[in-house]
Design a protein that fits this description.
single chain; 149 residues; mainly beta; six-stranded mixed sheet; globular
């Protein structure tokens, strides 16, 4: 093996460089940040505009994570009701988010800067501090009343 290849493999390769932004406050090298002072992070963002996707996840029966990889190109508009409800109008569905302190999330979504959105699960994390964002529920609403494809 060449010296540079050997150093690359010993450093963990590409997998050793990848860090889940949901598990930390952010990666300063890439500029990605997660919102929240505790272990629960409601969403993550990057200062760069024009991201391609956003990972949206919630919980099935309280224990099984599920989600959708939202393609920003299919996001038509963002509706909101106060600071606690967002409606992401997609070309084929509406992604409905309920929580608290969601204004910053809405503004970052409008600029295509959000990298992930995660619903809160009390079985996994302590409640966030007052004033911090929390996403209590995420629903997918499809035409015809079906709540999934």
């Amino acid at each position: 093996m060449s010296g540079s290849f050997e150093r690359f493999v010993q450093s963990g390769g590409w997998a050793g460089r990848v860090q889940d932004p949901r598990q930390s406050g952010g990666d300063m090298e890439s500029g990605e940040h997660a919102v929240g002072s505790g272990p629960y992070k409601a969403y993550g963002y990057t200062p760069a505009d024009d991201l391609e996707t956003c990972d949206v996840s919630w919980w099935l029966k309280g224990e099984i994570p599920q989600g959708q990889e939202l393609q920003y190109r299919f996001l038509v508009r963002i509706g909101y009701l106060g600071d606690d409800q967002l409606h992401l109008m997609m070309t084929d569905c509406i992604l409905h988010l309920e929580g608290r302190n969601l204004t910053d999330l809405r503004k970052r979504l409008a600029r295509r800067r959000v990298t992930f959105i995660r619903a809160f699960n009390a079985k996994l994390w302590p409640a966030p501090q007052p004033g911090e964002p929390i996403i209590e529920r995420i629903n997918l609403l499809y035409p015809g009343g079906d709540d999934h494809p």
